[in-house]
Amino acid sequence: MTHTLKVTVHEANHLEDVERFGKNDPYAQVSLNLKDKFIKTKTVKNAGKEAAWNQTLDLVNYNPQEHKELYVDILDEETGFDEPIAFVTIPLHQVLASPGHVTRARFNLRTVSGKEKGEILLTIAVLAPGQTEAAHPQSEVRGIVEESSEHQAHIKSLKRKESAGDAGTAALLIGAALGAKALHDASKDKAKVEREAQEKAKAENREY
């Protein structure tokens, strides 16, 4: 029987700055399976290294017997492919073991390279079928995280897509610049030919 996993994404602190110009525009996304679609929060524009969302996301097909981890990503919104900032894999046994099956905790984040940097504050609650309200967490705790090679591979694949997108955009810009230069040069050559023809015609007229 499926339950609902309610994930309230409160805030993230001390994030890695992935923007070359300006500040991070971060959003968070969560999933119970790396192969499934992630559910996203809103994007916080120009948040930089500190972001607050205070948004609740419902994962409605949670099965405690099947889903053992919660996968959380933080990405920087871009025009093309979004750039990953951090991620964390959260074992859900700590939520099931908490009073009322709800926990409010800070979890350490990892960067794309696997380095620990930053943290995210979440409230995670398990709602049984027919239950509409979660219990109130007793206090904030330090959350348990686990290392997941599959999750890191997922994050690295997002990074490769973003890097390839940047390279493609750069190639288009270079191509456009070269094309513009070629047109400019062709225009200059045409004008030069026309001037030489005019000068030749004037010289021939003077001879007669």
TrEMBL record:
Pfam families xref list: C2
Gene3D superfamilies assigned: C2 domain (2.60.40.150)
InterPro entries, per the entry: C2_dom (IPR000008), C2_domain_sf (IPR035892), Ingression_C2_domain (IPR052981)
Positions of the UniProt region annotated as Disordered: 185-208
C2 domain location: 1-106
Protein's UniProt name: C2 domain-containing protein
Organism this protein belongs to: Linnemannia gamsii
Classification lineage: Eukaryota, Fungi, Fungi incertae sedis, Mucoromycota, Mortierellomycotina
